[in-house]
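Before a colleague's protein record goes any further, I have to sign it off. What it holds is a sequence and that sequence's fold in token form. Would you go through it and say whether the fold makes sense for this chain? The record follows directly below this note.
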Amino acid sequence: MTAFEHRWNARGEGYVAAQALLLAGIVALPLLRPRWGTPRGLRVAGTALVLAGGTLVGWSGLRLGPNLTPLPEPRTEGQLVQTGPYALARHPVYGGLLLASLGWALAHGHRGALGLSGGLALLFDRKARDEERRLTRHFPEYPAYQRRVRRFLPGVY
């Protein structure tokens, strides 16, 4: 890792920048180049995913409270939250954002936004792995939590 890369991503700023760009693209692509004729069922399913994902993000953010940070580096004074949505998945904010981005792409029937949602999933997987290394250093009880709770989807992944 170069000195620039180390400074840029010391606390995970690079992940946050990439995440912001991908999310902006996911939202903007269907608005800039709309696709007409999306089947009603796909619009309804996509809208349901957007609502479910948004609800999960909101619930997770509220449950984290002052521990919430966009960076994978935990707050020095933070606590490990293992209740609410965090009893079901270790990264429910990421899971909620993935559901919402997938739903947005489907509701608009936009392949480009769907592709960017796939890119966001890959980014979140990498960011979560980095975050988990940091959380393991910060919280001795984290490895036991990892063994008990899946990363994004309860019972699946």
In short: Residues 111-138 form the longest helix (28 residues). The chain has one domain: 3-148. The helical segments are 3-8, 13-32, 40-64, 92-108, 111-138, 142-148.
